[in-house]
Structures are given as C-alpha cells and as structure tokens.
Amino acid sequence: MRQSSLVVVANRLPLDDNAAPDGACEWRRSPGGLASALHAILQKTPATWVGWAGGVGPAPQLPDIGTLRLRPVALSEPELRGYYEGFANSTLWPLYHDAVEPPVFDRGWWETYRAVNRKFAEAAAEVAEPGAAIWVQDYHLQLVPQLLRELRPDLLIGFFMHVPFPPPELFMQLPRRVELMRGMLGADLVGFQRPQAAHNVAQLAAKLLGSEGADDAIPVDGRVVRTGAFPVSIDVAEMRTMSARPYVINQARQLRHDLGLHKRVLLSVDRLDYTKGIEHRLTAYSELLRDGRIKVRDTVMVQVAVPSRERVESYWGLRDRIEGEVGRINGEYGRVGEPAIHYLNQPFDRADLAALYQTADVMVVTPLRDGMNLVAKEYVAARPEDTGALVLSEFAGAADELDDAFQVNPHDVDGLKDTLLHAMNADPADLARRMAAMRKYITRHDILAWARDYLRALDHTGRLAAQVPKQRRRATLSTQQLGARR
Ligand code: ADP
Ligand code: F6P
Known about the structure:
Rossmann fold, eight-stranded mixed β-sheet, binds 6-O-phosphono-beta-D-fructofuranose
C-alpha cells in the first residue's frame, strides 16, 4: 500500500459498506458528527483514512475517493461486540455523557478493545510515510496514540475527542482509567470540543499519573503533551450552496405546504440516542398541547430520529419508549389528517435535510450532554435569510459558541416549555439579529478553520518537541494544503 504524509484514523470509514457493482463508491454521509465534519476537508486533501467499513468479515477492496485513500480495518463478530458495541458504546459512551444511562463494566470487553486499537495502530503505521502526521479520532481509539508511538516514534501524533471528556469523579469509575489516560496522552496534541475537557484531563493526569501540568500542557514520560479546545464545525459554504439549489427550495416549499402553510413548524434531527434528550422535548411538547398553550391547528412538530447502534442494549428500550410516546401524543392531540407530530425513523440525504432545515420555524436541539451537536450549526447555515429560531441545550458543546440561541436546560421541563413558546413567538427582528450573529460566527469558524487550526497546532507541537527529526517537517505539507483551499 502507498504511504501518506497525513493519515486519519477513525472508527468508521465514511462510506457505505455496499459499494456499487462497478467498484465505484460514493461518500456516504453517515449520520454522525465525525463523518460529517471530516468529509468536508478530506475529499480534496491527499491523505489516507484508516477505518472500519461496516459489517463483519474480511475487509472489502475499496477504491480511492478523489485524493483520499481508504484503508479498511476488518472486524470479526466478537471484535464488533467487545470493542464497538461493548467497551466503546456501552462503557465509554454513557460514562463520557454524564452517565445519563448507567455505563456497563464488563471485564471481557477490555482485551478486545485493546486488541482492536492495536489493529488500527498497526494499519496506520503501515500507511504512514516517515515523519507523517497521524490524526486519531474519538473515544473508540483512545489507546491508539500510545500504541502508535511505540510502533513508530518518528510520527507526529494528534488525537481529537469528538465527545465530552468527563469530570474526574466520573472518569475515576473506569476500571482501566490509567491505561486509557496513558493511551490518549501518547499523542503530541490532544484536542477537545470545550476547554473544560482539557481542564478535566489535566486534573486526572495529576491524580492518576502524578503528572502535574497545566490545562494546555501535561508532562508525560519526558515529553510534553499539548492539550486544548478546538470546537468542531461544519462545511458552512456547502450548506449555503445546498440551500440555494432549486431542488431544495422546491422541496422546502412542498414540505411547508404539506405541513400546513399557516402553522409553526418545530423540527428536531438526531441519531436515535439517549443522550439527545428526545424524551424530554416530547414531554415538553405534549404538556404544551395538554395545557392548551399550543394547538394542533397552529403548530406541528417533525422529529427525525435516524436509527443508530441498534444492537446495543441500552438503545433498544429507547426506540420503543419514543415511538410509544409519539403514538400517545398523536392519539391524544392529533386530528384526522393532522398529526401533532411527524416521526421519521430513517436516514435522509443532505439535500432533504437542508429542505427540512429551511422549513422549520423553530429548531429544537435538547441533548442532555453532547460533544458539539453539528445539527444546531447546520440549521443556522441553512437559514440565509436570517429567519427561524434555534432552541439549544446548554449541555451541547455548541452552546459555548452559539450564545444567541434560545438556550435551555432540558432537565427543566417547565423552563423548556417557556423557552419553546418564547422562541415560537419571538419578534422577527429579534430572530433576525440572533440568526445573523450566529451565522456570522459559524461562517468564520467553519470546518476548514477547525482542521487548519488543529493541524497548525499539531505542527507547532512537533516543532516545539526537543529534537524534531527532519522528516517531521513533511507533516506540515497537509496543513499548508488545507490553508491553500480557503
Ligand atoms: P452525533 O455526532 O452525536 O451524531 P451531531 O449533531 O454532531 O451528532 O451530528 C449528526 C450528523 O448526522 C449531522 O451532520 C446530521 O446532519 C447528520 N444526520 C442526523 N440525522 C440524520 C438523518 N436522518 N439522515 C442523515 N444524516 C443525519
Ligand atoms: O460524534 C460521536 C460519534 O460516536 C462519532 O464518532 C460517530 O461518527 C457518530 O457518533 C455516529 O456513531 P456510530 O459511528 O456509532 O454510528
């Protein structure tokens, strides 16, 4: 396999596992923030993406996508269970999201998690040029930085955590907490969504490893690991262009017509995940109907909840609960041909999502905890006319940046109800001011800015290291390429 000077390592490859019969493959924008974010920058950057192609068994042969090479990592059924469904999504995911569902500690999963992390590290080591920059993504691969450093000390290693990094009192519950900290701190630069995460890591490094450092620099094994916040974003230009396409405009018009021209449309778009606060918002909506503060004749809700992690146990009950509640709300408050809520448990392509965003008067984003929440940013980018209201949980990373949203604590159902009404009835001039400010912000802080800032910081970290091998300078290439695209 040819080697690259920039290698991205992420759990998933961003494409469908059923490539077309002629071998051609297209980007599948899998529903998930990581693929959405990296998709935008990697299509035109010479790089290799190491990841799982979905499914079990031997890795498929995958063609390049533009300048991006794909290096699939095969997973067996037991690996999928122990690594992805088990340790990553039943232990780390709930724990990192404030334990809103109890994390499962199954001793059998750890060895598989470690072995699969080694597999990813070996694949990355194989495709990395001497001195290459490696960018490891997310909680699935938290051991990869250290494993990679052992395999290839010449590499410049970055790690980015897309999900929250929990406070010490939660992280300390992990039976393998020391290994996980050491694994992640094998990187030269560790990036997070919010500054609080870097603070949590500094505290934990002191507690668990005796490494007294600062929120932006932690000494480990004679090296200094840099840490910091790099809030991820979206391809604002792409969403803006998409929103101006005649198909999207017509589709939005049609949706408006179908939903009721005179109605206020509330929209939510999530993976069907217990962290997203779907039940809290359904409760608030249902109580507003019950209290008579809104009526089905003038308000309608659309809830898109794309299926996610359906083999993971904690997700089973959730779907049943949500579908039961949607049925109850429609049963109690709907009228013939006029449901209170439309529920869509299916994936959408980007254009149809853009049309939905354009149709919505109020976008309701109420996660109980979320690393960033790109849906909130996508909505803002899809509203070039500065109309519409964003109701946003203060527990989403996006709340740090989008302070002109109507921010809420989703646990406070009364507060959520009042905020929904406030957003629905806000003065258009106030809405326009808020939306314009948010749009200006995300336009400046788009996905290219995120990647450029992170890779520049990684490059800088490499230069700061005491002895920078000459080869490392090649890693700067990729940073310059990203910069040149702006
Ligand atoms: P997470 O990473 O937890 O899934 P984000 O809000 O950050 O949450 O990212 C979700 C991404 O998935 C967004 O880019 C969004 O557009 C996309 N997405 C969400 N629902 C769907 C859907 N039904 N079909 C296609 N893409 C979706
Ligand atoms: O953003 C968090 C995340 O776990 C991403 O890593 C992932 O792309 C997304 O959610 C979707 O999850 P999954 O890959 O498990 O479908």
